[in-house]
Structures are given as structure tokens and as C-alpha cells.
Amino acid sequence: MRISYGSARFLNLISSGPLLDIKTVYTMFGERCVFDCAYCTQAKTSKSSTDMLSRIVWPVFDLERIVDALKNADGVKRICLQVVSTPSVEKEAFDFIQKVKTLNIPISVSVRITSFEMAKKWFDHSIERLGMATDVVDEKLYEIYRGGKFKNHVKLVKKIANNFPGLVTTHVIVGLGESERQMVEFIQEMYDSKVSVGLFAFTPIRGTKLENKSRPAFESYRRIQISHYLIKNGLSRVDDFEFSKDGEIIRYGFEPAGVPQSAFETSGCPNCTRPYYNEKPGETSYNLFKSKV
Hints:
This protein is an alpha/beta fold. It has one domain (2-264): Aldolase class I (TIM Barrel, Alpha-Beta Barrel). 30% of the residues lie in helices and 15% in strands. The protein is built from eight helices and eleven strands. The protein has helices at 5-10, 63-72, 89-100, 116-124, 139-146, 150-163, 180-192, 218-232, and strands at 2-3, 24-29, 52-53, 56-57, 78-83, 107-110, 129-131, 168-174, 196-201, 242-243, 249-251. The strands form three sheets. A seven-stranded mixed sheet has the order 1-2-5-6-7-8-9. The chain has a two-stranded antiparallel ribbon with strand order 3-4. It is globular, with a radius of gyration of 18 Å. The mean pLDDT is 93.
């Protein structure tokens, strides 16, 4: 099975690379998805390497070796399964969950859910949280870049969240052609539905359909992070925001005197880090994370 390079380093499965303060260990199951998201390295028609997800390399290790490393590790707060939609992937992931659930470490799964029954199956296999990526918040671009109907997806997310309150996360990618207003309105809709939101910045990866598309401006991404922080913590609502005619955020309704660093850290499930998922080492980070002390 695969594990992210940073997680492998944290678990001492490899000895090279920076040792970061990673609270979540990220694993990956399956490769070369049956779906064809335009921005994804694992998309059906992607020409990217199969050992990548976003810009991260995911080396292969024996399952038992990873399980043993988790048993001997200190400081792991969560195990996250990135599930690529491929045949037999559920069985592989369920086998892994069976082996690690006795460690009493919360388990999250990020997987493309297409029905309520599918979601229930994952919860029946002892996961704590379910990640249902939305990625694209513009309705028309959702159909072009991700495939399927945006409204149907949102309806399903809300239905599952209603049945598993507080246990559903959705992920969005900033910079796929949506306006800032569309993004923060979606974020508000999700928190109103008791769904947590994970923010990521679009990252062009060689071999994907969108490899030549530009990344979002840092200033725009920071405005959305601040908006997310205010909405998540009930300090402001999008109804009170002010926008330009192009949908850019001008005012947040409630204007904070200061914003904590946590507002700019990777968001999603508790203890999510995903270092270097959006940027190369040495660059300004879209999502901040802490180095290991």
C-alpha cells in the first residue's frame, strides 16, 4: 500500500527528507481512478506518475510494516485514507482499517461517495469521519472539471451529514474559476449543514488536463481563509459580507482586530496537516504547518 512521503518520514520508514510535526498519517489505496477529474494526478486519462497525489509522492510499503510503524509511533492523532476509485479498493482499505482500529486512533476516509448506502458502509467499518470532496464550487465548472451534477452532490453531502452529524468533511479547491463570493457562500452553506470544510489551493501538476492553469493569487486565498475562519467560528455570516461586482471580498461583516495563525493552517478533519500539498519547499505556503520541534 502507499503512504505519503511526509508520513513515511514521520514513521521512520524512510530516513531522508524533512522531519515535520505531522499529527495525521496519510495512506493511499488504489491508483488510476475510474473518474477523470481534470486537476487530479490519479484521473483516468492523467499522464502523471501513479505514485503521486497532488504534488506529493506516495511510496509503497508492505501493509504490515506500516501497521507496525503505527503501533510504535508517538504523537499520531489521526489516520487518513485517501481512496482512489478503483476496483477492489474497498476490500484493501477495509482490511487495513481492521488491522489498525485496535490502536484507537481516529480514522478518516476521503473517498468519492455516490450513494447514502456507500457512506454507511464506510461508517459501519469503524471510520470516525468521512471526507466527501466537492473541489469545484461553480456549478458549470463542476460538471466540466469533475463530472456529475453539482446539485446532486451537495444534496447527498447534506443527507449524509444529517444522518452522521458532525462527522462529514468536504474539501474545496480555490482557483478553479469560481469567484470568491461563490466560494464563501458554499462554505457558509456547508457549515449551516454541520459539514466541516477543508481548504486547498489549486496546484497545476504536469500530466493533468489543467497542468497549464495558473495557481490562485495568495491575496485571494488569504481572504477566503479569513472568511472560512469567521464563518466556522460563528463570528460572521456571508450575508453580512460585502463583495465587488466581480465577487471579490471587500468586507467580512465582522472585521476582526486580528486573525490567529490557525486560520491559515490546513483545514479539514481535526489534526489535518498535509505539508507541501499545495506548494514546494521554500515557497510561501498557502496552508501553513508547523515544523517538528
